[in-house]
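Sequence in, structure out.
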Amino acid sequence: MTERERDVAGGRDDRAGVGRGGRRDGRRAGAGAWARSIVLRALLIALVWVAVTEADASALVYAAPAIAVGVGVSLVVTGGPARGRRGGDAVRGTARRAAALASLTGWILARSVAGGVDVARRTLRLPHADVDPCWTTVECRLPAGAPRVVFAFVMNLMPGTLTATVRDADGADDGTDDGGSGGEGGRAVLDVHVISPELDVAGAAVELERRLAAALPGPGHRDAS
């Protein structure tokens, strides 16, 4: 029995977009999957936001735009609901990536707060500031494109760091400053300016890469861990 015959036997007609009983459900199911995905992402990000801000009333005014941006970024990083997958697998995959994304968001916020305190301590130290700017490099094994752009962008969110260029591991500069996508595959190298060599930039990069890989769709993207 061919695949087409199996589909017809199961009461599904992909060309007509109808199921058993003549109900047209392709577009409706797609909209429902998108709605569930967006609501789940928004709820998880909202929970992380409340936990990090300790429900501070002064911070709640920024919650809505922050959640909207977080949902948008998560859709860019992880992609929308997968098409052509069975409902249970799609829900489990979305839930798993959403949980990884919530964990990543919490980790970034925690690192940003801790790093901000450390940078403030260094710059305000008397009689001399405890800073020694230098350059370092970190590697990124995430796939080229959006994953590497997000990786470089988040590295810039870490206090005391600034990603200047992203290039191929073989040394070829891709000509893009501050968050380029690097080569089409393999590894990319980021040139990062740091406020002090004491900052564990390499460790933060490894942990960020692992967490981003867990949040990305597709098993191939998890190899970076």
